[in-house]
Amino acid sequence: MHDENRTTHDVFDDYAKYYDLLYDDKPYAEEAAFAARLVTAHCPNAREVLELGCGSGRHAEHLARAGFSVCGVERSPAMLDAARARRATLDAATAARIDLREGDILDLDLGHRFDAVVSLFHVMSYMTTNADLRAAFGAAARHLRPGGVFVFDCWYGPCVLAEPPREARRTAQADGIRLERMTRPELDVRANAVSVHFELTVDREDEPPRTIRETHRMRYLFSPEVEGFMEEAGLALAESGEWMTGRAADRDTFGVYFVGVLRG
Question: What is the pTM of this model?
């Protein structure tokens, strides 16, 4: 068996080969629809959407199917390749509404403003320092038209502290590939972060099994600090709640969403 170790910065380049298989059961269409409802609730005429951290493009696909013009930005070249491959399989009208670009949220400047910015599947929780969070909120605000909205989801601090993430196992199988991923979280309360240690075993019919070990550092956020970061960036907190339900967040709510509106 071959072992590999990955850091947070390069993990998605190797992970991209197996990412969609691991998350094949994730309700991307429903999540995109929920995000779209939040966007249109606060910006009824929204047409152009910037997605920060678009990954393999599955949310972008469904946003485009809903009629939005989507610009997806992704740091990982391999994930971006996966998104481009997905776009190539779509009908011409949907594909034409998706623009994919390589870029880093922390220093992004596309020279264009959008009606809405979205960042989904906990991308903002990968911003683990205050400096990174300020840069990410600044990037969102910089790319919004006045009155535009920023929608994102993240790990919710009260729930993480009340019920810390536990060890977990996930398996997936398709087309001669079997995946097994073991997850071991390590809570760092002084940094408001969790180091999530993954061990991914890839078993293919045509080669020996290999194991990839990696660590994702995730920041859990609290409503007052989110509001503070938004204010610094010129955004006003307009709404927050439990991701996918809209209910008020509490200590049992692991994933929350926030909506900020650009002042001006």
Answer: 0.94
